[in-house]
From TrEMBL:
Signal sequence annotation: 1-32
Record-level GO BP terms: L-arabinose metabolic process
Protein's UniProt name: Glycosyl hydrolases family 43
Entry-linked InterPro entries: AbfB_ABD (IPR007934), AbfB_ABD_sf (IPR036195), GH43_arabinanases (IPR050727), Glyco_hydro_43 (IPR006710), Glyco_hydro_beta-prop_sf (IPR023296)
Organism ancestry: Bacteria, Bacillati, Actinomycetota, Actinomycetes, Streptosporangiales
SUPFAM superfamilies per record: AbfB domain, Arabinanase/levansucrase/invertase
Length: 484
């Protein structure tokens, strides 16, 4: 009897401690949580030259999106394959730290899908920030290397687990198991996105059916009957519910009744399910990428996730200019929204750079080389945004291309090219200049190099170079006017 009483006492103590832990965690999160006022989407755009990087979009209502940073990427990977897909953005419970984790993959480099799935990177790319604006350099974390025969690590996501006080990071890996090679969802735990536990199997479908693109959302007030809901691409878009992230999950259903699948039943074939809760009300959106038709993301919405029959399609949405591929959505507080928009939402004017001594000619890019020409066609080849200098934003500028967002004028071997920002310090320095009074006419402007302050932007035989200026001809060649 004493043994039974002792066990009951221990059980009650454990339950009390567990309840206390959950309550403290919930209170900590609630205390740190201000009202949400907007939304931030992190995504990539596709297999273009710079499409497999991290892009941001903003929304006030959760349905209509505006591309930030003039449609250019906000973060570029300089590690691993030097490309990223499927970015997921995570906030700490106290709201004082953020991470972006992404697939280390760049199909645009010429990698085949077979190589990517079977001989690809088993690492994730990780960025870290304390304000959503200033991000660390990217780092690689090999999460799937311990899985026998692992061919990749795709579509990572993470969610804070109050039961363990750390984060569950989960992703898809293609590997052999029990004689079948297919994608399964694996997970590891971390408290700092640097050190991870060994990978463990999380979700496996029967037979040869693979599963990728799983994303979980927390519903703290358990609308629909569960605290957590997850959507996965497994032939269908399967919705499941649970009260514990690492506990047992119940299948709620799929979207076949809406004519939507991941290929198993045809119809509108989609992937990349992406959850978002609408601010201020119990309503959720599940965004689905209509990749088979190239139509991009569409939302379906529900006020009760306990049944897939509660979803309805929406037509009152807008996705902005960029095509948005698999990513994630973060609800923003007013302070977070203000910081993000101040950094990436400012509308910078479009300008041309007119030559002083050849006033019918303007700086332009052509096949990524840079020269001065008259009658530039298309006109956007001669249009730039003068943005704060990449290496020094105080009194310096960088020239961002209008028709190639994320590409900048930079000197390379003292010749000028238009190139994508690769995130390196040398690129930032090569693409940064100080506007000074025109060397030939002080009412015009000359541009002095940041990292070679004895040299200026000038044209020579109509080609744009970075040279020291020693004579009247050079002063005229190095003088320009910023015009519209």
């Amino acid at each position: 009897m004493r043994r039974i009483i002792t066990r009951v006492g221990a059980l009650l103590t454990a339950v009390f401690l567990s309840f206390t832990s959950l309550s403290v965690s919930s209170m900590t999160q609630a205390a740190a949580q201000e009202p949400f006022t907007g939304y931030l989407m992190a995504h990539f755009t596709g297999e273009s030259a710079n499409g497999e990087q991290v892009y941001f979009a903003h929304s006030k209502d959760g349905l209509h999106w505006t591309d930030l940073n003039h449609g250019g990427p906000v973060l570029l990977s300089t590690v691993g394959t030097r490309g990223v897909r499927d970015p997921s953005i995570i906030r700490s419970p106290s709201g004082d730290r953020y991470w972006i984790i992404a697939t280390d993959l760049r199909i645009a480099s010429g990698t085949s899908w077979d190589d990517a799935a079977n001989r690809g990177s088993t690492s994730l790319v990780v960025w870290e920030s304390t304000d959503l604006v200033n991000w660390s350099a990217p780092r690689l974390v090999d999460v799937a290397g311990g899985i026998p025969g692992a061919g990749n690590a795709w579509a990572p996501e993470a969610i804070y687990n109050p039961e363990t006080g750390d984060y569950v990071v989960y992703w898809a890996t293609n590997s052999p198991r029990n004689g079948v090679t297919k994608h399964r969802i694996w997970y590891a735990r971390t408290s700092d996105f640097r050190t991870f536990t060994e990978p463990r199997l999380y979700i496996e479908r029967g037979g040869d059916q693979g599963i990728i693109d799983t994303q979980i959302i927390e519903v703290p007030n358990r609308v629909g009957g569960y605290r957590y809901y997850r959507a996965s691409a497994d032939g269908h878009i399967t919705i499941e519910g649970a009260d514990s992230i690492l506990g047992s999950w119940t299948t709620i259903g799929n979207l076949s009744h809406m004519g939507i699948s991941n290929g198993a039943t045809g119809g509108n074939v989609v992937e990349g399910p992406m959850w978002a809760k609408f601010n201020g009300r119990d309503e959720w959106a599940l965004w689905l990428d209509q990749f088979a038709t190239g139509r991009g993301y569409m939302p379906i919405t529900s006020t009760n996730l306990g049944s897939t029959r509660n979803f309805r399609t929406r037509s009152d949405y807008g996705m902005g200019t960029n095509r948005k591929r698999h990513g994630s959505i973060l609800n923003l507080t007013a302070a977070e929204e203000s910081r993000v928009l101040a950094r990436w939402g400012v509308s910078t004017p479009v300008n041309r750079i007119q030559s002083y001594n050849h006033p019918d000619r303007y700086v332009r890019h052509q096949d990524f080389d840079v020269r001065i020409d008259p009658n530039v066609s298309p006109a956007q080849d001669a249009q730039f945004r003068l943005v704060p200098g990449l290496a020094n934003s105080s009194g310096y500028v960088s020239f961002e291309s209008v028709n190639f967002p994320g590409y900048y004028l930079r000197h390379y071997g003292f010749d000028f090219v238009l190139a994508p920002n690769d995130g390196t310090e040398i690129f930032k320095a090569d693409a940064t200049f100080r506007p000074v009074a025109g060397l030939a006419d002080s009412s015009w402007t000359s541009f002095r190099s940041y990292n070679y302050p004895d040299r200026y932007i000038r044209h020579y035989d109509y080609l744009v170079r970075l040279d020291p200026i020693t004579d009247a001809q050079g002063r005229a060649d190095a003088t320009f006017r910023v015009t519209d």
